[in-house]
Design brief:
The complex is a heterodimer of chains A (about 60) and B (about 260). Chain A is mostly helical and about 60 residues long. Chain A has one domain. Chain A is about 80% helix and about 0% strand. Chain A is built from three helices and no strands. The longest helix of chain A is centred in the last third of the chain and has 21 residues. By secondary structure, chain B is mainly α. Chain B has one domain. In chain B, about 75% of the residues lie in helices and about 0% in strands. Chain B is globular. Chain B starts with a helix and ends in a 19-residue tail after the last helix. Classes of the chains: A mainly alpha (about 60), B mainly alpha (about 260). At the A-B interface, α2 and α3 of A face α3, α5, α7 and α8 of B.
Chain lengths: ~60, ~260
């Protein structure tokens, strides 16, 4: 249990929403890549949103 | 050396250097306060564990099919890189305390001094603190070496870049006999976060089945885009009340990466 906790803290860190968002973005990329629509843009857009929201939330906590 | 290999080498070198600086501070503090022999034995034991982990996991990872490897490891690299980048952005904006090696050194020395006099033979305190410090700082490097190296199918290059960084930091530490307080740690962490996130975006999306316009050349657009976006977040966060005003808890100054 302590090992799982350590691994969670080690990889996921302070904001679990980033990990969930990345997993969802990769899943959406896999789904759309099977169609004729370009899928390369999904992960970069998701990263921009996730990073901005995460930093914004941290700024609000400090305030 | 290709652009990807250069990116791999630079990222691993910077990540390893910054973690080695933090580990060096711990070892210097406990070694100079209590027992060099015990502290260095702890360092050696941690290095053996880290080398074993790198060897075993590296072989297992490189045996995976490249598609599965890139989506899983690319995703992990992206999550890990974004955490580094997020902390570096908050520190650059003054919303999180910078890691202060001198303060960490003094705190570690005070704790070592308060732990009682070392006995004869191996000092358990020195061994444990040095072992734990090097192991925990080293695990981040092992993670980066393995994820980058496995995706690039060049764990050897990643391990070599890590080794050079450690040697340089140790040599600098031996030369000045003090923690390396002037190393621009947050700038290095910022650069590593940008590189890990960029390569994570590229490999993760590619592993999930996306085709990048321009193939590998897309990295030449992704890296600067992530850098510019992150600098924009620093600028925006600096304008918020609370930034650069020292509101950050003192305890965070000696916290990890």
């Amino acid at each position: 249990m302590r090992l799982l906790r350590f691994l969670w803290d080690f990889v996921v860190g302070d904001d679990w929403r980033i990990a969930v968002g990345v997993a969802l973005a990769l899943g959406a990329t896999a789904l759309i890549a099977d169609t004729s629509v370009a899928a390369w843009w999904i992960v970069p857009v998701a990263v921009a949103v996730l990073l901005a929201v995460s930093v914004w939330r941290a700024v609000r906590v400090v305030r | 050396m290709s652009g990807s290999e250069l990116g791999l080498a630079i990222s691993v070198f910077l990540a390893c250097a910054v973690e080695a600086v933090e580990a060096l501070t711990i070892v210097l503090a406990v070694g100079s306060t209590r027992s060099w022999r015990s502290a260095l034995t702890g360092v050696g034991a941690a290095v053996v564990v880290l080398a074993g982990l790198t060897g075993a996991l590296g072989r297992a990872l490189t045996a995976l099919p490249i598609g599965a490897l890139r989506v899983v490891v690319g995703g992990l690299l992206l999550i890990f890189g974004l955490q580094w980048l997020r902390k570096a952005i908050l520190r650059a904006a003054g919303l999180k305390a910078l890691h202060d090696e001198r303060e960490a050194y003094e705190a570690e020395r005070a704790a070592a001094g308060a732990a009682g006099a070392p006995g004869s033979g191996i000092d358990g305190y020195s061994f444990t603190i040095a072992f734990k410090g090097v192991l925990l700082e080293g695990l981040e490097v092992v993670f980066i070496v393995l994820t980058f190296g496995a995706n690039q199918h060049d764990v050897g290059l990643a391990a070599a870049a890590a080794g050079v960084a450690v040697l340089l930091v140790v040599a600098a530490g031996l030369a000045i006999h003090a923690p390396l307080a002037r190393v621009p740690e947050n700038t290095m962490k910022f650069a590593v976060g940008v590189m890990l996130s960029s390569f994570g975006i590229f490999w993760g999306a590619e592993g999930a089945g996306a085709q990048w316009p321009g193939g590998d050349g897309a990295l030449l657009a992704i890296v600067p885009a992530v850098l510019v976006f992150s600098l924009g977040l620093v600028a925006a966060a600096r304008r918020r009340p609370g930034a650069r005003t020292g509101e950050v808890a003192r305890g965070e100054a000696v916290a990890g990466a």
